[in-house]
Amino acid sequence: MAYIGQNLDRFSNVEKLDVITPSTATGAGPYNLTQNSTAFTPVNANSLVISIDGVIQYGNFTVNNATVTFDSALSDSNTCDFIYQMGIGLISTPADDTVTTAKLTDDAVTYAKIQDTTTNNRVLGAVTAGTVGETQVTNDMLSNKSITINGSAVNLGGSVTVGETKPTITSSSFTIAPSVSSTITIVGTNFVSVPIVEAISSTGAITRATAVSFTSATSINATFNLSNGSYFLRVENNDGNAVRTSSAILSVSSAPSWTTSAGSLGSFSAGSTISGLNVVATSDSNVTITEVTSPLTLTGNTDTPASTMNLALSGTPGTTATYTISGTAPTPTSETTYSFDLRATDVESQIANRTFSITISVGATGSGGFN
User: Fold this and answer.
1) Other residues' Cβ atoms within 10 Å of the Cβ of residue 17
2) Which of 63, 124, 193, 249 can pair with 214 through a Cys bridge, CB separation 3.0 to 4.6 Å?
3) H or E segment at 111?
4) Looking at residue 5, what DSSP letter applies?
5) Letter string b/e over residues 315-341, b meaning 16 or more CB atoms within 10 A of that residue's CB
6) Of 364, 281, 273, residue with least CA distance to 327
């Protein structure tokens, strides 16, 4: 009677591989695995049985694709007897709870293996292509549906720019006097009535404006009483959105003041040499002194000696700036008083003008001489 049952290949699936040639040069490996001279990639290291010099090697090597590497080096004197890959063996249906995640290799279960579009499928929560649970999700179900972002309805599948409306400051600079209540007009955008306005010193100290008035979304007035220094400005709307200037645009500084009294600087003879005639101005930052008469009188030469003097005004800027008037006095035909305006300007572009004068005298003419 013929045998009735499984075919033999269901009980055993053994692959015979080509033997390797151990060598001292290659050492532990890697050695190429082949079958009939064609590269052979085993299932894993545990599926291989290798005999070296009549000794079965098992568990003392690793495989990487179609190569094998031993834990210890081989040499020219070693001989590989055979290499077998042991197959799956008897196939049967696994019992319940016998297949664990440890038995599954990474990426072994693909989306195609879990997909099931039957209406009543509950396996894995029935999460399949285009379905959630037992409900088929279609484009029609999503059409005309929307969510609300920042008070605006946005259709699903649409887009919206999400952001906050922050104020900006476009004013570039301010200068006010120290220890005096002064009001500045800040120009910018997106101001909301009534914002908080602060001055922030280089030390981080914050001084809030004593008064703020809202003119429009682009203009606000802020009053400060601050000590000398440079300050950043910060504006915060009542919704919490705020802006701070990237540089200290508010300067608190005293304007220049003159040490030299206004009026006459002296009288000089026509054609004489003028030297050591100084004018002095001070400030809490460097001061520069220039002539601002229009047309120039002290330093001009368009009508010398009638109305201009053609003298030099020179000096070095400083917190106490001393500038010297020098040169050769003009030679008018009669005594002449030349008036001119000088301006002291500090680093913060604050100015102080003062009017001075110089008299040029002319001696008597036609006098007799003595022998």
Assistant:
1) 21
2) 193
3) helix 111-114
4) S
5) beeeeebbbbbebebbebeeebebebb
6) 273
Q: What does 242-307 look like in DSSP terms, one character per residue?
A: EEE-SS--EEE-PPPEESSPSEEEEEEETTPEEEEEEEEEEEEEEEEEEE--SS-SSS--TTTTTT
Q: What is the pLDDT of residue 140?
A: 63
Q: Is the backbone of residue 124 left (phi > 0), alpha (psi -120 to 50) or beta?
A: left
Backbone φ and ψ for 254, nearest 5 degrees, come out as -80, 140
Q: Which two tokens stand for residue 128?
A: 């399949």
Q: Do domains 170-252 and 257-361 have the same CATH topology?
A: yes
Contact between residue 289 and residue 313 where contact means Cβ atoms under 8 Å apart: yes
Write the single-letter amino acid at 69: T
Q: Which of 234, 312, 335, 320 is nearest to 282 (CA)?
A: 320
Between CA 278 and CA 48 the distance in angstroms is 106
Nearest-angstrom CA–CA distance, 272 and 194: 66
Q: What is the pTM of this model?
A: 0.49
Mean pLDDT (10-residue bins), the chain, 371 residues: 46 82 93 94 90 91 94 94 79 58 71 57 47 56 69 71 85 93 96 96 95 96 95 96 96 94 97 97 96 97 96 97 98 97 94 97 53 30
Q: How far is the C-alpha of 44 from the C-alpha of 47, rounded, in Å? A: 6
Would you state the structure tokens that stand for residue 269, as one six-digit string? 């003879």
CATH classification code of 170-252: 2.60.40.10
Length of the chain in terms of residues written: 371
Dihedral sign for Cα 20, 25, 31, 36, please: negative
Burial class (CB in 10 A: 0-12, 13-18, 19+), 56: exposed
The domain defined by 257-361 carries CATH number 3.90.1150.10: no
What ranges do the domains of the chain cover? Answer: 8-86, 111-140, 170-252, 257-361
User: How far is it, in rounded angstroms, from Cα 122 to Cα 99?
Assistant: 21
The span from the CA of 66 to the CA of 107, in Å, is 21
Burial code (b: 16+ CB inside 10 Å, e: under 16) for 107-136 equals eeeeeeeeeeeeeebeeeebebeebeeeee
